[in-house]
């Protein structure tokens, strides 16, 4: 992050939580930033529906293919569509066994009385 003040600190916290949870290998914490009914598309285009399924998927990948990996997120671009809806675009890098996988995600976050959560998340590996 840059030295500029964050205009959307609650939304940025979602991304920070995802990054820290990934780096801890904590699937439940990773999934906690999503709504119960999230539509999540992973980097290979697989749809994963619901927070519980996102957590289960990440339990699996944290124990296998991404075991011991780290996620380095870059500064997000956050655009408020309404006071309670935001679009988030963020690039990141997964570092694993001396290999880097660059990712690019687009998400829709919504706010309610409980705060912000991600309702839709589409992650991909750019060419």
In words, what does this structure look like?
- This protein is of the alpha+beta class and 127 residues long.
- Helices cover 27% and strands 45% of the residues.
- The chain contains three helices and seven strands.
- A hairpin with a 2-residue loop joins strand 5 and strand 6 (99-112).
- The radius of gyration is 14 Å and the shape is globular.
- The mean pLDDT is 93.
Can you tag this structure with a few keywords?
single chain, 127 residues, alpha+beta
Task: Give me the count of strands.
Answer: 7
Distance between the termini: 25 Å
- Major sheet description: 7 strands, mixed
Shape: globular
**pLDDT < 50 stretches:** none
Mean pLDDT over the full residue set: 93
Order of helical and strand elements: HHEEHEEEEE
Rg over CA atoms, rounded to whole Å, is: 14 Å
Q: Count of DSSP helices?
A: 3
Structural class: alpha+beta
Q: In what range is the share of β-strand residues?
A: 35-45%
The helix content is 25-40%
């Amino acid at each position: 992050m840059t030295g500029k003040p964050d205009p959307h600190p609650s939304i940025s916290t979602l991304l920070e939580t995802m990054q820290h949870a990934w780096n801890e290998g904590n699937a439940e914490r990773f999934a906690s930033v999503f709504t119960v009914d999230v539509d999540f598309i992973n980097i290979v285009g697989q749809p994963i529906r619901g927070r519980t399924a996102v957590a289960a998927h990440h339990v699996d990948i944290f124990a296998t293919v991404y075991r011991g990996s780290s996620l380095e997120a870059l500064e997000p671009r956050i655009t408020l569509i309404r006071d309670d809806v935001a679009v988030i675009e963020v690039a990141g890098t997964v570092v694993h066994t001396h290999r880097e996988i660059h990712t690019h995600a687009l998400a829709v976050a919504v706010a309610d009385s409980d705060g912000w959560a991600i309702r839709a998340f589409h992650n991909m590996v750019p060419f």
